[in-house]
Amino acid sequence: MENKSTVAGILSCVSGVIGVFGGLVYAVFLNYWMRAMSQFMGPAAPPNFTDYWFRTIGLIYIIMGSVAAAIGVFAIIAAVFTIKRKSWGLALAGTIASTLIFFPCGIPAIIIISSAQNEFKH
Questions:
Q1: What share of the chain is helix, strand, coil (3-state, %, to 5)?
Q2: What angle, rounded to 10 degrees, do the helices at 49-84 and 4-24 form?
């Protein structure tokens, strides 16, 4: 079967897209929600306490979302190289990155790309 790298590239791309959209949700929506909770809980807590903690948690969501989106973009770029059969090392790195984002697609992609090394141009 000479289409193993195409299947692995598609699985890696799916994980990458999930990572980008999930990262955007973390970075935008959850940060906005934390800021809204800060305003909602403001009168019930000591001054500056809720504002500080909710903004800190919002910043953590921004950082986590940005990292997830960056890993997702890398997985998508590596998936393109995988489908084109250009660089096996980049393909393997991309499938490992896709495992960090979405485990059910990443593990089969690693297994498939490991067995498809001979399909790539050296």
A1: 90, 0, 10
A2: 160
Start-to-end Cα distance in the chain: 19
SS3 assignment, position 3: coil
Q: Alpha carbon of 66 to those of 24, 63, 79, 82: distances in Å?
A: 7, 5, 20, 24
* Confidence (pLDDT) at 3: 85
Give me the pLDDT at residue 16, please. Answer: 95
Contact 55, 34 (CB under 8 A): yes
42 burial (CB, 10 Å; 0-12 / 13-18 / 19+) is: middle
Burial zone of 70 (CB within 10 Å; 0-12 exposed, 13-18 middle, 19+ buried): middle
User: Burial, 109: exposed, middle or buried (Cβ in 10 Å; 0-12, 13-18, 19+)?
Assistant: buried
| pTM summary value | 0.84
Q: Which of 61, 67, 52 is nearest to 32 (CA)?
A: 61
